[in-house]
Amino acid sequence: YQRRVHGSSKAGTMLANRLFSHTAHTYRPVLLGVACRAAHQVLPNNKYTKDHEWIRVEADGKSATVGITDYAQSELGDLVFLDLPEVGQSFKQKDVVAAVESCKAASDIYCPVVGTIAEVNTSAKSNPKLVNESPFDKGWLFKLKFSNSEPFRDQLTGLLDAKAYTEHVAATAH
Fold first, then answer.
1. What phi, psi does 127 have (nearest 5°)?
2. What is residue 63's three-state secondary structure?
3. Residue in 14, 132, 8, 36 with CA at minimum distance from that of residue 76
4. What is the largest CA-CA distance in the chain?
5. What pLDDT, in 10s, does the model give residues 10-41?
6. Runs of H (alpha helix) within the chain
7. Threshold 0.85, pTM exceeds
8. Angle of CA points 80, 89, 125, to nearest 5°
9. Which of 55, 138, 158, 157 lies closest to 97 in space, CA to CA?
10. pLDDT digits (tens, 9 = 90+) for 123-156
């Protein structure tokens, strides 16, 4: 998992605030190993970003569930904090929408499509380990209602399918 903490990012600010409030030491980002140690779960009906978010369009065709991939959670390690968006907030594709923090690092989460937050996973917010234990089921992060102003299907075509995502992880893990 290759995202790093940057001072201007949501994850960087969140982590810096938490670290500096508890210690006087200078924070230096941890370089995480990127070798893929084991096969990671990839669901065939989801779409994926190169930044390791997944999106699953719901049966109604008007909303989607978003989370981080199994690969992302395993590279981050045990999650200890989730900074999730508020219901009603609207985001453009690739906007920073949330952040996750583990013992190793903090990482921004990007919105895979244009939409408005319809629901956040309060269970995962209060128990971030759900993301580690079940990233596609109990550990989802938020649900989006698609914006009517931009056809979401066009945005989905720019994302990776399961095969392309698996190839992406394999290529970046070596």
1. -140, 80
2. strand
3. 132
4. 50
5. 555 544 444 333 332 222 222 233 333 457 89
6. 10-20, 70-76, 122-126, 129-133, 152-157, 162-172
7. no
8. 20
9. 55
10. 999 999 999 999 999 999 999 998 775 667 788 8
